[in-house]
Design a protein that fits this description.
Glycoside hydrolase family 42; Rossmann fold; hydrolase; TIM Barrel; signal
Length: 822
């Protein structure tokens, strides 16, 4: 009987039923790890199953030999072949994987069957997969032959790869640093559970080599190394479980996760309320005193034991995708999220209200339309009826729920810093907590980004249409992929915390519960990773690597799968584990970006001249704040400069000279404090554009505000329009000439809207570095010029080749250019 460790993803990261009740699963492995590879390397014509080597595999192996021969020639000419080494590695791996898949059709059919998008056609998909994988191997090797051939012939010159120093990379002030230069570490989150950290088939430059506690180690009975089960009822620690943490080699850098999903039985017996107010990924009431006592002890002990260890260089993840959705009919209800409140939470809410209303219960009753005798009598029905949206009761609970979440994470961080004051922290925040309209989830994205020492999240994108019928893919009408889910979120996080390292501890750019494409475009992979890194992402752990070295699925995905949530079971089908071209491209794009890390940092660390005003006050009180806000963001995104946001805190805490204008759009609700901050900004000489008099007209309880903004020493423009284009033109008109991009890009794409995004920065050599993204479906014609009208030359930095000032950019192309005035 085998027990497995739990993995994490946007759709899963949940307790296995086997971890809850001791059930197990059977293994499907039947190929010796090295025999297939050995027979192929020796030129035999049969694989480990005594099956003849397929013509496609024979063709692929011939091409691999051709590429290896070219690599020897290149090395003799001092040409870097790191990229080709990775192509060869993935090619050989996936030929091995294809043989395993061919020999185990039932296992692959079952994998497709667990994902409802593929289930109806699972038999044919399983039958086709080995051929598909071999064809894709041939494609990546052919591409490698073509590109290396160009370099050997002198047609292009690539910059050598800068590898991540997995032993000595350090966290700097706002970036990771390797050998004195910025570096972007990469790896896979939830990586082949059951394989030791010392296995170089899993930990290497091709797949990444970050260490992290629990998940990659040998399976144990519980879900993570750092979890509630570490502490026994007698106050001592389970040393066997603790070894899963302490035996991590102090060689490679990495990160650690506080896995707060479960709670021991002894805690439940002593605290019957401990599960009240639980959520999907937080398995207990965060207000419960005993739960806090348990976690306080665990955090202090693990923080003490790992102090100064390399495995904490990328920080401690304080939680996996936390949320506490408390509105009726939310999708989390089936996981019993926030279905009732504990007495501890009710009391804390009552105290919060007492402070909010300065002890005036009459004022609360007036706002709520209630008749409570005192604050100790106040009750709310949770989950809350959506019909209450926009009411004082809705606002007060939702605002409190956010403050409650922030206070819990402050508690966790304070406990860690009490014993390990230099420990870095971040939280895997789901972008939907900011991007979607709902604010019932208890997550204040801004407050948490300010709280932790690093910015944490699991930002994702959609490379093709959403595979869930209930989810919209409207963005596909204009764009090749869901770029705004990357850019808008990153621009907000970078606005809030511009001087913090940004860690995506579970990047779902390659697949997720909402989308996957069995033949994902490599152009998409390249574009989305460049876009996210330009936006601020300093390190990322992709979802997910689930192949053992012999080609079989990792331990958790063997046999009959019986997870708490079906997401993990279906995650394997259509993922990069079946796509050699995608797995290879991910590593190739990280190689390229690390080769140009200094240029990327220069491009990203620019002043953001236009700032969109953001407030949770309107977000909580309205049903479409983010939907409407995106429209203005989209309109301004394609103008050659990075967009930013301001909030009450940003205006008060950051240098107001970092922007030229604040734009207030579709924002009727603000607190008196927020209004006063905007007025102070104007009084001190700032520039504010307001779309109409409706914005800023109400307080958080919907009461009309008598005051209106006045210009003071600044400039105030009230447009009285909801027309996005008019608001956009007013914002562009308020930008100071020095803030405009030095390189101007004129686009023709046959559409009434732009699809080419670009950024420009001074390169310190008298010229400029420019990056361009075509986010549309079609080729766009571009004309470049300089703002000052001067002549110039252009060099494609990826190939070292000269380019004309007018050229076409293909869909999803990314161009990194050097523009030098004559």
């Amino acid at each position: 009987m085998k027990r497995h460790l739990l993995g994490a993803s946007v759709a899963s990261a949940l307790l296995l039923l086997s971890a809850c009740n001791g059930s197990g699963s059977s293994s499907t492995k039947n190929i010796e790890p090295k025999s297939a590879e050995a027979s192929m390397e020796s030129g035999q014509t049969q694989n480990a199953n005594s099956a003849p080597i397929s013509p496609l595999e024979r063709e692929a192996r011939g091409k691999i030999e051709q590429l290896l021969s070219m690599m020897e020639t290149a090395k003799a000419k001092n040409i870097d072949v790191t990229r080709e080494e990775t192509i060869v590695w993935f090619a050989k791996q996936f030929l091995k994987f294809a043989n395993w898949d061919e020999a185990n059709p039932e296992a692959i059919e079952a994998a497709f069957g667990y994902e409802r998008y593929y289930a109806a056609n699972k038999k044919q998909l399983a039958a086709d997969l080995p051929t598909f994988e071999r064809q894709k191997v041939i494609e990546i090797v052919d591409k490698g032959i073509g590109v290396l051939g160009q370099e050997l012939r002198g047609e292009i010159k690539r910059r050598p790869v800068r590898k991540v120093d997995w032993q000595n990379t350090k966290a700097g002030d706002n970036m990771f640093v390797s050998n004195g230069k910025p570096i972007f570490p990469y790896d896979y989150f939830s990586k082949t559970v059951g394989q030791p950290l010392t296995n170089t088939d899993i930990y290497n430059d091709h797949l990444g080599a970050l260490y992290h506690g629990g998940e990659d180690l040998y399976p144990v009975d519980h879900d993570r190394a750092i979890n509630s089960f570490l502490l026994k009822e007698d106050g001592t620690f389970d040393q066997q479980l603790m070894e899963e943490l302490t035996r991590i080699p102090d060689t490679n850098i990495g990160f650690l996760v506080y896995w707060i999903m479960g709670i021991p039985e002894w805690v439940e017996q002593r605290e019957p309320e401990v599960r009240k107010g639980r959520s999907l990924f937080t398995g207990f009431d965060v207000d419960n005193p005993l739960a806090r006592e348990v976690w306080g002890k665990i955090i202090r002990e693990t923080g003490r034991l790992t102090k100064g260890k390399k495995v904490t260089e990328l920080g401690f993840v304080l939680a996996n995708e936390p949320h506490w959705f408390s509105e009726k009919d939310h999708w989390t209800a089936r996981f019993h999220e926030m279905t009732e409140l504990s007495s501890y939470t009710v009391k804390k809410f009552q105290n919060w209200l007492n402070a909010k209303y300065s002890g005036d219960i009459t004022e609360l009753n007036r706002n709520w339309g209630s008749a409570f005798a005192s604050f100790t009598h106040v009750q709310v029905a949770i989950p809350m009826d959506k019909a209450l949206l926009g009411t004082a009761q809705w606002y007060d609970w939702m605002r409190y729920n956010m403050d409650r979440g922030t206070e819990w994470f402050k508690f966790m961080q304070d406990e860690l810093h009490a014993v390990n004051p230099d420990a870095d922290t971040h939280i895997k925040i789901m972008p939907r907590m900011f991007m979607e309209n709902s604010r019932s989830g208890g997550i204040d994205t801004e407050a948490l980004a300010e709280l932790t020492t690093m910015v944490g999240h699991d930002a994702k994108s959609l490379g093709s249409k959403n595979i869930r019928p209930s989810k919209s893919s409207k963005w596909l009408e204009r764009y090749a992929y869901y770029w705004s889910g990357v850019s808008m979120f990153h621009d907000f996080m970078e606005s809030v915390a511009p001087d913090k390292i940004n860690v995506n501890s579970e990047s779902h750019f390659l697949s997720s519960g909402q989308w996957r494409d069995l033949d994902t475009r490599t152009s998409y992979v390249r574009s989305v990773y460049w876009l996210a890194t330009l936006g601020g992402m300093d390190a990322n752990m992709a979802w997910f690597w689930a192949r053992d070295p012999d080609g079989s699925p990792e331990d958790r995905l063997e046999g009959e799968l019986n997870f708490f949530d079906p997401g993990l079971a279906g995650a394997y089908a259509g993922s990069n584990n079946m796509q050699p071209h995608v797995s290879n491209e991910y590593t190739q794009v990280m190689f390229d970006m690390n080769s140009f890390s200094e240029e990327i940092i220069a491009l990203r660390e620019q002043r953001r001249p236009v700032r969109l005003f953001y407030t949770e006050t309107t977000a909580i009180n309205t049903k479409d704040y983010m939907t409407q806000g995106y429209k203005l963001y989209e309109a301004l995104h394609f103008e050659g400069f990075p967009l930013g946001y301001v909030t009450n805190n940003i205006i008060q805490k950051q240098d107001n000279k970092n922007w030229d204008v604040v734009v207030v759009h579709n924002t009727p609700y603000v607190t008196d404090h927020e209004f006063a901050t905007l007025q102070s900004y104007l009084t001190n000489g700032g520039t504010v554009i307001v779309d109409s008099k409706k914005s800023l007209s109400l307080n958080e309880y919907g009461k009309p505000r008598a005051q209106q903004l006045t210009a003071g020493k600044g400039k105030l423009l009230v447009l009285n329009t909801h027309d996005i284009d008019k608001i956009k033109q007013a914002a562009l008109g308020a930008i100071k000439p020095a803030s405009l991009p030095a390189v101007v890009v004129k686009e023709e794409n046959g559409k009434p809207y732009k699809t080419t995004s670009w950024r420009v920065v001074d390169n310190g050599k008298g010229g400029y570095t420019a990056i361009l993204f075509n986010l549309g479906h079609d080729t766009a014609k571009l004309q470049l010029s300089l703002q000052n009208g001067q002549g110039f030359t252009i060099t494609d930095m990826m190939t070292s080749n000269a380019m004309p000032s007018s050229f076409a950019i293909q869909s999803e192309d990314v161009l990194l250019l050097e523009v030098m005035p004559n």
